[in-house]
TrEMBL record:
SUPFAM superfamilies referenced in this protein's UniProt entry, alphabetically: beta-lactamase/transpeptidase-like
Identification of the protein by name: Beta-lactamase
Originating species: Corynebacterium phocae
InterPro entries for this protein: AmpC-like (IPR050491), Beta-lactam-related (IPR001466), Beta-lactam/transpept-like (IPR012338)
Domain Beta-lactamase-related: 58-311
One Pfam family named in its UniProt record: Beta-lactamase
Origin superkingdom: Bacteria
Length: 331
């Protein structure tokens, strides 16, 4: 029965996106910032990308450019939020407070459920066996896609713990991407430190990195006049203000602030926490991407070469290929 629901949902979404697709969305203008970098954005962009904001770091030089946006334009970074959450874990491990093999059952009461033996490292590496989302109803996702509504709006921390506790951890030990896993990891860090996630990431990362235009999208935090991304239908997307799943994807930032983060994490972070390895063919380093209904993001950082690339697009069309093209140009 679950398989049938998922199949029907997939058909509905695929049909809707193909019919309404992004071809009518035009590339943003005017260009801003560095002429050469803006020119690369024009040449290498994909159909359906709209307003782009980007930076490259090469040694001591930081270069910004945009199309219809600039380095101070506020954007959603989606799942790039996860590397911030993983860095919070790194800090606790570095301070000797937690270990990557600390279990959920050591931090919160989950009885003798399978979740009790899951480690923080498994949550971070997507090997816990937890499902992708706390809400397993595929029709809820379909509805939010078509209406551009925030799918995480009413999700609480209690919902996260309940969904994780009730999971049978199918495929534990195998890599299976889980927003639920990162939502739970953030909740555990909140409980251990006694500090709400939004305050914790502000205190531990935003402030030290001097990221003055970055915040966690808690309910009601996004101003009415703040930029909104576009869905593939061209509709304004609701900002992804969250509580329960905030550690998995609720950060808003700017290219300017993200360049500060890139330099800060190169000096203070550990890229074995939450990052994926970028192949040598794609320019090397480490990466994480992110997507919400109205934004797509790609961040690549190469600490050995002191290089970084960030691209954000205010539609759901991905920026991975564009970012990797910029990374290769730095070689």
């Amino acid at each position: 029965m679950k398989f049938c629901y998922a199949a029907v949902a997939a058909i509905i979404v695929a049909g809707g996106l193909l019919a309404l697709g992004p071809k009518h969305i035009q590339l943003g203008s005017p260009s801003t910032g560095d002429i050469a970098l803006a020119g690369t954005l024009v040449r290498a962009h994909e159909t359906g990308q709209h307003n782009l904001t980007a930076f490259t770091i090469n040694g001591n030089q930081t270069t910004f450019a945009g199309l219809g946006s600039d380095e101070n334009t506020e954007v959603e970074i989606g799942s790039v939020t996860k590397v911030f959450t993983a860095e919070l874990l790194h800090q606790e491990v570095e301070r000797g407070n937690l270990q990557v093999d600390t279990t959920v059952g050591e931090l919160i009461e989950v009885g003798d459920t399978p979740l009790s033996s899951v480690t923080l490292g498994e949550l971070m590496d997507h090997t816990s066996g937890l499902p992708r989302l706390a809400n397993a109803n595929p029709f809820a996702g379909v509805t939010s896609v078509l209406t551009a509504a925030n799918p995480y709006e009413n999700e609480t921390a209690e919902d996260i713990v309940r969904a994780a506790t009730q999971s049978n951890l199918k495929g534990r030990g195998e890599h299976s991407y889980s927003n639920l896993g990162y939502a739970l990891l953030g909740y555990l860090l909140e409980q251990y430190t006694g500090t709400p996630y939004a305050e914790l990431v502000q205190e531990r990362i935003f402030s030290p990195a001097k990221m003055t235009s970055t915040y966690v999208m808690t309910p009601g935090s996004v101003p009415a006049d703040a930029p909104r991304g576009r869905t593939v239908r061209g509709m304004p997307a609701d900002p992804w203000e969250m509580v329960g799943s905030a550690p998995a994807g609720a950060i808003r930032s700017t290219a300017h602030d993200m360049s500060k983060f890139a330099r800060w994490i190169m000096d203070n972070g550990d890229f074995s926490y939450g990052w994926l390895t970028n192949s040598v063919e794609d320019g090397g380093g480490y990466w994480h991407n992110g997507g919400t209904y109205g934004y797509s993001t790609m961040l690549i950082i190469d600490p050995a070469k002191r290089q970084a690339v960030f691209v954000n697009n205010d539609t759901a069309v991905g920026t991975e290929a564009l970012a990797r093209a910029l990374k290769k140009e730095l070689q």
